[in-house]
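## Example pair
The file below holds two records. Each record gives the amino-acid sequence first, followed by its structure token line.
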Amino acid sequence: MSVATMRWSVFLLLAVAGLFYVKWYPYYGRAFEAAANHSIGKSILMGDAASAPAASWDAALGYAVAYGKAIWKAMLLGLLLGSALQALIPASAVHRALGGRGLGSTLMGGLMGIPGMMCTCCAAPVVVGLRKQNAAPGASVAFWLSNTMLNPATLVFTGFVLGWHWTGLRLALSIPLVFGLGWLANRIAGPGEPIVATPPAEPETRTFGDVLMRWGQIFLRMTVRLIPEYLVIVLLLGAARAWMFPHVGPDVGDQWFWVLGLALAGMLFVIPTAGEVPIVQAMLALGVGAAPAAALLMTLPPVSLPSLAMLVRSLPMKLLVTIALTVVAFGVLAGTLASLLGFR
């Protein structure tokens, strides 16, 4: 077996086996749980309480631990896949599939992200790898956003827990969000702007042992660069829950300021995959209006402050700001539609 064949085989085995173990098999079981109990667990935001805990070190550490337990396997897989892309897959192959500036490349990136089903932070290292291997901004953004917004498991959970009208609203807005922002990403990056520096061609005589050593080095560099800042921001957000979500109850109605405020908070806050479903369920049970709940359903999953920070060296800052603001706008749109349609 040639070294090239071994590279592709190891990468595909890692992707399929890793996603099966971390995502596909567990979510298969959770779908039956959601159908039977109309619940997939407690809100990670506030648990059984009627509000988030006051800002403190205990609140920060408590959230970081709960969040870490939920995502550590997926984060490890994301780092392994992001580094494997750079060590095992030729940049020319990634560029051929995802390097175009047209809609086709963006569609391909979005479709490839759907089976990943990762949270925004766990998908970010894979996006870093894609960009290092010359994937276009549009395909990379579509891949990143489709992991969360077109996640088939989360759409099923939403239907069983909140109602299928909520799934319909989310899906109707997620498709233009994912592919529209992918298309816009290529426009913002500009036709003359290089994607990333093309990695130097590797010698054809490189042994597979050398390839594995390089993979380990890239994995270590990515981990050291991405994880410390990520942990700091997660701790800060965990402590700031009470400020970002100050009121949870019937007084949080469909007024525009609640919708806008929670859309902004949802865009900044960080949650594990499908964490928005029990959060919205708990808020609706406590009397929160459908409009702010819908805003959270659209803005909690796709981006967060930690995931934006993780991609600041891979995507232009103006693009990341545009993505964040567009997510907030779609949250407001979701809230408006939920109110007009009489969601409960």
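Second record, same layout:
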Amino acid sequence: MKKTSTRLADGRELIYYDLRDDVVRDAVDRRPLERTVTTSEVRRDPLLGDSVAIASHRQGRTYHPPADECPLCPSQGERLSEIPDSSYDVAVFENRFPSLAGDSGRCEVVCFTSDHNASFGDLTEEQAGLVLEAWTDRTSELSHLPSVQQVFCFENRGAEIGVTLGHPHGQIYAYPFTTPRTALMLRSVAAHKEATGGENLFDAVVLEQELAGERVVLEGEHWVAFVPYSAHWPYEVHLYPKRRVPDLLGLDEAARTEFPKVYLELLRRFDRIFDGPGGEREGAGEPPTPYIAAWHQAPFGALEEFEGVSRDDFALHLELFTIRRTSGKLKFLAGSESGMNVFINDIRPEAAAQRLREVASS
């Protein structure tokens, strides 16, 4: 992998990640951009104890542009984009309309490929491996910023999720606090550790899934993917390395090498969930399966509030889920979910796992 860091016209950082070492990245951003001004602010809710990012400047962000005006495609001639070069393998840049900025953290965009019409599942194993290297490198770099306590790499895919740019891409949020979801996990880990005399909760959950078997979707030598016992979403899969590590930096070479094959197979199965008996997609003109893919990593800040727990007690894992519950129907977060955070799942986790095994690549 070759890494090249440069600056866009308004001062934002752009990083190219290339498969070949001989690639030269010296294209200049020729757009007449003024420096980005953000109004990002983090406010703490005194009742719930969580934080909300106030980012009113995002109202003017790019919204569903036509394909020939995509800001994530490479620049061509006088059609200038966020990527000054005429091609790229993987590119990462500071978001022009960030939810978090300055003392409130940082937001980055990760472009998985220059092919506008592709998706992550269309990548080769070599390309997917390069994205993993980019995620890992950005996690390392962002963790050293004084305002950052947790790094979150994720992909939103599909208009149903709220994606406003069709080009295959993800994002990285570098939060100035430990996120509420991670804090809940750490409290559960601390309670389980105390109750069992030191057993790790993540290890116990993964082992239970492997022994039960009925919710395991696929398993490699270094990774295991399963539908959780209490899945919140219609189709939800958690992917764990078999050797517990706190973050992407902790993965060994064997796990890194196997990851692309396992992850690409998962994504391709997600696109076949709603196919008919002969491979026909149910519902005329139904788009590919919308999903969110989210990496959960240990915070880099102090964990004193989680008594007896260290970063090494956390387990890196990826959660992949779709909001589509059946052909043509979405799972909406209505009263119980949005008002009380109590999820109601329309599909038994065991049935979801069975379906994801049925649509395996032949």
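Notes on the second record: The mean pLDDT is 93. The helical segments are 125-143, 180-196, 201-212, 253-270, 335-340, 349-358.
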